[in-house]
Amino acid sequence: MRGWLKATIGLVVLSGLLVGADRIAVGVAEDEAADRLVQSGRMSQRPDVSIEGFPFLTQVLSMKLDDVRISSDGVTVGDGSHQVALHSFKAKLAGVKVSDSMNSATVDSGTGSGIISYPDLAQLLPPASQLLHGTKLPVGTGTRLSLSYGGPGKVKASLGPIAIGEGTVHNDGNTVTVDGFRLSSLAGMFAGVTNQQIEPMSFTLDTLPAGLKLAAKDGDKDGVTPLPEGLQLSFDGKGVKLLG
């Protein structure tokens, strides 16, 4: 009985040591992965990385991580001319194949999301002076439209106290288009025109986090969704090159 007890205690201690070693190893790997993501240019700032699943060491032996989570608040996205903050970015990466030196990594599939505030979204669109060229509206050089949530699938635009109207947002690949704006009756009165439609406004995001891309339209779900707090971007990707 005493021998059985000693063996049981020994097994418990050994298991604890193995679990501890596993958790230490995963912590080191998460820190290393976060640093490599910044160095590779896949993230504009150091993210939080979480490698899910237990045990971690058996995943290392197979050189494939089942589930990796990445999160960051304040990474940037841009169109080559402007960079804006992407808030509350979160990504889930499945089937991450890594090299033994962690110099390269590819992802079987990944999804993610993040939010661009409406003031930042306005920075990615052409200046109001271009959009409202030829009208009598008081538009200074470099002035931007003020954007806000306009309801499901819509954004509202205004120029100071003058409401411009509502438009819709959609994407084709990484190109985001805001269109359907038509000058409101008040704006039309100030502009000296009636029922004038504003030309569609587009920008293409060329720097997206973790090597993902904007999701394609799937039924009623689009890669871009207006929310009260800003424009939500939805990401996905298959065979994504994460590192290297």
Task: Characterise this structure.
- This protein has five helices and 13 strands.
- The chain starts with a helix and ends with a strand.
- 26% of the residues lie in helices and 39% in strands.
In short:
The protein has helices at residues 2-40, 56-62, 118-124, 128-131, 185-191; strands at residues 48-51, 64-72, 75-78, 83-98, 105-116, 146-149, 154-159, 162-172, 175-179, 201-204, 213-214, 224-227, 230-243. With 244 residues, it is α+β, with helices and mostly antiparallel strands.
SS-based structural class? alpha+beta
Query: Helical proportion?
Result: 25-40%
Terminal residue distance: 56 Å
The count of strands amounts to 13
**What Rg do the Cα atoms give?**
25 Å
| Tally of individual helices | 5
User: What does the main sheet amount to?
Assistant: 8 strands, antiparallel
The pLDDT mean sits at: 79
Strand composition percent: 35-45%
Shape, principal axes of CA atoms? elongated
Low-confidence stretches: 4-18
Topology as H/E string?
HEHEEEEHHEEEEHEEEE
Give me the secondary-structure topology:
Blueprint: H1 2-40, E1 48-51, H2 56-62, E2 64-72, E3 75-78, E4 83-98, E5 105-116, H3 118-124, H4 128-131, E6 146-149, E7 154-159, E8 162-172, E9 175-179, H5 185-191, E10 201-204, E11 213-214, E12 224-227, E13 230-243
Antiparallel strand pairs: 1-2, 2-4, 3-4, 4-5, 5-13, 6-7, 7-8, 8-9, 9-10, 11-13, 12-13
